[in-house]
Amino acid sequence: MSNKAAIINRVKQQIRTQYDMPVLPIKGIEYADKIAQFKETLRAVGGEAVELKQGEDLDTVISLHYPEAKTIASNLEDTTLATISPDNVNSAHDLKNIDLAIVRGEIGVAENACVWVPQLMKERVICFISEYLVILLDKNSVVNNMHEAYEQINFHDSCFGVFISGPSKTADIEQALVVGAHGPKGVLVILL
Amino acid sequence: MSTKHTKAADLFIENKEQQVWHNKTLHFVRDKRDKMAMQLPEWEVLRETAHKIKMHTITHLDHYLDLFSTRAEANGIQVHWAKDAEEHNQIVYEILQSHKVRKLVKSKSMLAEECHLNPYLIDKGINVVESDLGERILQLLNEPPSHIVMPAIHLKRQEVGKLFEEKLHTEKDNSDPTYLTRAARAHLREEFLTADAAMTGANFGVAETGDIVVCTNEGNADMGTALPPLHIVTMGMEKVIPNLQSLSVFIRLLARSATGQPVTAYTSHYRKPREGCEMHLVIVDNGRSEALSNEDHIQTLKCIRCGACMNTCPVYRRSGGYSYTYFIPGPIGINLGMLHAPKEYYDNLSACSLCYSCNNVCPVKIDLADQIYKWRQNLDSFGKADPMKKVMSEGMKFMFERPALFRTGLKMAPIVNHMPRPLIYNGLNDWGKGRELPQFASESFAALWKKGKVSAANQKRSNHEQ
Amino acid sequence: MKIGLFIPCYVNAVYPEVGVATYKLLDYLGLDVDYPLEQTCCGQPMANAGFEDKAIHLAEQFDHIFDAYDYVVGPSASCVAFVREHHPDLLKKEGHVCRTSSKTYDICEFLHDIVKVDKLPGRFPHKVSVHNSCHGVRELHLSSASELNIPPFSKVKDLLSLMEGIELFEPAYVDECCGFGGMFSVEEPSVSVCMGQDKLRNHIQTGAEYITGADSSCLMHMQGVAKRENLPIKFIHVTQILASGL
């Protein structure tokens, strides 16, 4: 089998002219109203964003959106709806029949509706295996574009982080868009 | 005068309805891409920056590979190095074997296609399950992808419906895409839950952090890697980029160029193995290092596999992915095939009218058409030039290098106008397939000039004006 | 200012009237125009087919013939693009520096950028669909390419707009290839004809009576398809419209 040194040496020998790195970051698009843009983009990619209004109860808002959800996975203290925690299972497989998952996002991106979700839970599978996904997001953490987002992302020393933009989708059959391929069929971002 | 591409294209075009649909559908993806590009004032700056980052990275690849693999190892990922496809396949198999893996769920990887990994593993008794919907459809059909981003774009819903009826026992004659997608979801959910290992490709490897970044819409890579205790990533060595700042440039370009979405639904960053699990990374050369020293074709190493060049290519849209002999079709496939094995894949060079649209849509500004032009120049040197084209070019050279002969030719040419049709429009006349020949003028421009008729045309006006 | 008129081989043989119109325009604008008789072909057909080596001598010939002029101007964007983009490389192989490539212009860009024509006599009271040819758009930048996010412009439309009564249109897929591509048209006849048919349909759907463009080669290809299928559309080179009142 080849080893690192052999391959890297070979690469080194093959390089001819070398080019400089451009100056980064470049200036990305900015929006007059980032939150409005974030909501509009999220709608365009098949998701939905709502702002939690003063005096509104988070659990009530979630329950009204997903009245049929029975098995709800979350490790957040913001909600009392959770019936199972991703932190207290023996195996990720134990989370297979989840109707709804509630997780926290840390950055929202106006240009593409991405929400940065670092893995602050033992089993991240709830983000993908659940029928529907709710992401809680501080509305002050919405940025204009991915350049700004990558300046800020934090893994919190975890093993994984993901930008989620709306629900899972596919267009592999005749380019017809179907929402809910393998992952959630709907994503609700609640802006706090 | 025809190549394997020409012949396969003939067949594709024969099914007019399918060809029209294919052309229209892929152009619609190009339209969506345009809409996205026009929404960002900085679009062209992004492309130029992406191009520069890639040129910098691939020409400092030794440094970035070292940094990337060192960081990944520090993060607990086990790194392997493969010089070619064979080593790649062996490494993957050995990892699977050491974990007694029977079922492997895979997300879409062009590198795995390049290395023919699936047949290799299946041969050794591994149950390989493709989890991207398009790839799964093709796996059930035992067909290769016809597009790198939309692998099953050549299939109609009825064909998928029939396939699922047989394999997944869906309702008879139900070919509704939502219904079929739901059936695949249920079927693949079971596969995810019973897999022993997951495998993904990599869209980007971030040197500064050791992160492996995978972009999908379906969430199949994420589902796959979040369940079993083993995750194998294989990536071509040119996928390394310097840092997260660079990544932001590519993420903004990738999905917009590929499918006309602002971003893929999931942009996943794998940094360390899951708790109690193992993560392996196989870094593959397979001819890439050789391309580094080829200054005419080094730019193919910038490719981020978005497929935009296929969607805009007027030839690809009208001839379909299977008309190309390399597993990656379209402008980038023509070039990658030539870089890989020119004597095997030269047939694809005919599939280009040199319209240069691919150069303009490419998010990393690969000089795709220029490279096709350059490859054509090399064909003669290894005996693969079309003899007819060579004779025609030699004939033109002979005539055009002799101005007097050229002018005699101009004088004689109108005779062709009056030749009997069967003499002109026969099997030997490829122009005559679908087109009338142009009519030669009774007097050429050169003849008019010599006789003073060109300036006379204006003299008349001048006199008239006075 | 001495202009060397570059009349590409096929324009010479098939469309001399395009050459005449080009001359008329330049002469009308008071320029000193000469047509060097020794010119033949720029070498593009062989080079695009993969036989650049057979074009080297033609590039030398071209450079020699046109060296003495201040500008070289021709009515075929694709041929001009070949001189501009490829002749320097071809001559470099022979150890020569190309002296003509940077002063070679397509007639439209020459009128628009160098002479800066802002009026022309004549009426052309017709509906005209503009054919944006690949090399005109993507190599010579006669108009903004549809793929790029740059401010839209069209030198060809600017010039045509000088004609009184003209109504300008552009087809859907505004700068998609017509399928000519030199030897591509005979090596890949099925795809090429299909592209030509699609392009014609898009032009005809604008309701135009004429298709015009800066490239006679694309017009020739589409004309061949239109004639075979008896399609109701006429073809005219930009210079013929612009010179119609002279």
Characteristic terms for this protein:
heterotrimer; B: 466 residues; alpha/beta; Rossmann fold; six-stranded parallel beta sheet; four-stranded mixed beta sheet; 25 helices; 10 strands; disordered C terminus; C: 246 residues; 2 domains; four-stranded parallel beta sheet; 8 strands; globular
Would you mind describing this structure in some detail?
The complex is a heterotrimer of chains A (192), B (466) and C (246). Chain A has 192 residues and is an alpha/beta fold. Chain A has a single domain (25-191), classed as 3-Layer(aba) Sandwich (Rossmann fold), CATH 3.40.50. Chain A is built from five helices and eleven strands, in the order ααβαββββαββαββββ. Chain A has helices at residues 4-14, 34-44, 58-65, 126-129, 146-152; strands at 48-51, 72-73, 100-104, 107-109, 115-118, 132-137, 142-143, 160-164, 169-170, 178-179, 186-191. The longest helix of chain A is centred in the N-terminal third of the chain and has 11 residues, at 4-14. Chain A is globular. The N and C termini of chain A lie far apart (53 Å). Chain B is of the alpha/beta class. Chain B folds into four domains: 1-31 and 307-392, no CATH class; 40-142 and 196-290, Rossmann fold (3-Layer(aba) Sandwich), CATH 3.40.50; 156-193, no CATH class; 402-465, no CATH class. In chain B, helix 3 (43-58) packs across helix 12 (244-258) and helix 9 (157-167) packs across helix 10. Chain C has 246 residues and is an alpha/beta fold. Chain C is globular and about 50 Å long. At the A-B interface, helix 1, helix 4, helix 5, strand 8 and strand 9 of A face helix 2, helix 3, helix 4, strand 1 and helix 5 of B. Strand 8 of chain A pairs antiparallel with strand 9 of chain B, so a sheet runs across the interface.
Termini Cα gap of chain A? 53 Å
Q: How many strands, which pairing sense, and closed or not: the largest β-sheet of chain A? A: 5 strands, parallel
Q: Give the strand content of chain A.
A: 15-25%
Main beta-sheet strand count, sense and barrel state of chain B = 6 strands, parallel
Distance linking N and C termini of chain B:
57 Å
Strand content of chain B: 5-15%
The portion of residues assigned to helices of chain B is 40-55%
CATH superfamily of chain A: NagB/RpiA/CoA transferase-like
- Spell the H/E element sequence of chain A: HHEHEEEEHEEHEEEE
CATH class term of the largest domain in chain B: Alpha Beta
Annotated CATH topology of chain A: Rossmann fold
Gyration radius of chain B, in Å:
27 Å
Query: How many domain regions of chain B?
Result: 4
The tally of beta strands of chain B, per DSSP, is: 10
Q: Oligomer, anyone? A: heterotrimer
Broad shape of chain B: globular
Radius of gyration of chain A: 20 Å
